[in-house]
Amino acid sequence: MCIVRDGKIIELSGNQPHTTNNRMEMRAIIEALTWSKKNMTGEKFIIFSDSNLLVQTFQKNWKRKANLDLWYQIDGLLQGQQVSFRWVKGHSTDRLNARCDQLAQQQARSIGRKRKMHAQDEMRLF
User: Fold this and answer.
1) Residue pLDDT, tens place only, 36-84
2) How is the chain split into domains, by residue range?
3) What pTM was computed for the model?
4) DSSP of the chain, one letter per residue?
5) 2-125: CATH architecture
6) 50, 54, 58, 102: which sits with the fewest CB atoms below 10 Å from its CB?
């Protein structure tokens, strides 16, 4: 995720094995809300996402059918924050969205390397 604050870009990324794209999109929102609670007390801000599902859920109150554990975390983090959500087209000319995609791809590749290394370690144990 990319956070723009005072003209500076702060990049945060992470990974989680055995997950889905939707869950990782939600994790990014959780991390953004956690960061904002610590660093932006009372300030209004906007979260941009290329996940139409997430943005429409916030903007149009779409029914939440899956990942309820993450929705619960998001709802708790939204308390006391002044945040709005905007959709940006994925894989387009939005440079920050493109950078977030690069960060996500790097993290996904690192999980592949970790799995390969872990499998090699397990083979050595036998």
Assistant:
1) 888 887 888 888 887 888 889 998 989 999 999 999 999 999 998 888 8
2) 2-125
3) 0.72
4) -EEEETTEEEE-----SS--HHHHHHHHHHHHHHHHHHH-TT-EEEEEES-HHHHHHHHH-PPP-S-HHHHHHHHHHHTT-EEEEEE--TTSS-HHHHHHHHHHHHHHHHHHHHHHHHHHHHHHH-
5) 2-Layer Sandwich (3.30)
6) 102
